[in-house]
Amino acid sequence: MQNALVLDDVTKRYGAFLAVDRLSFTARAGSILGFLGPNGAGKTTTLRMALGLVSPTSGRVEVLEHNDAAQVRERIGFLPEERGLYRRMTPVDAIAFLASLKGVPTAEGRRRARKLLEAQGLGEAMGRQIRSLSKGMAQKVQLLSALVHEPDLVILDEPFSGLDPVNQQSLESLIRDLAARGATVIFSTHVMQHAERLCDHVVLLAAGKKVFDGAVDAARAAAPRSLLLEGRFAAADVESLGGVEKLRTEEAEDGGCRCIATLSAGATTEEVIRSAFAKDLAITRLEVREPSLHDAFIVLTGSGKS
Asked: What pLDDT shows up at residue 108?
């Protein structure tokens, strides 16, 4: 199997509202794909179409080499954005019950549940009712419920929402472990840092349309580099340098000038630095700043437009 998920020219309409507009992308088997976009971009609708929970208005969806996700449901794990567990159950009971719905015998489901809970630092909580757990602990239990049957394809809708930094880090490790054992992981998020650290491949949506599809480094290349300069010079001197499109200034700690210069399209940091030294600017600190995935997201989705 080369591809775990294929969307080909998929559109979804709700009456006059166009939720997803002719979307195509592929998730390779064994990869981690970040499905990114602002709230309301169409991410959840797309994931629901991939799972067969919502039918596309037009286009083709292929999941684990089948045209109907229902045929391979036992090979898919799904964490919905809307969390929900039986609050009077214990974590072991809840995970084993949901595993049984995917064909795992109850005794085996309970064994796997205990093992997963111990591995995630929830050993002491496995006998407590879910209603007594913290929000973060309950969310981890629901995540483990989506993984207990050892799926080939894992789809996580906003999995980091509501988790503290420690549990976010734990979830990132878990996602890496899933990919290491050969599972394909697709997760939606509007927080770029998680995708930047985890993903082989990202797809960016804006208003239901795909605006980028490729590697993280290629996405970052869509945003301009910037230079940080500090020293005894006037901001106007930096603004007049060739290749500077935008300038943000503030007072440096030593009372000098601190500028963050965004480079214009096609300009290189080397050209701007040479121009600065040719003007004999009294620079005490110079730092080249590579664009982040967040910077690229702003550029590609047009989120920075007023």
From this structure: 97
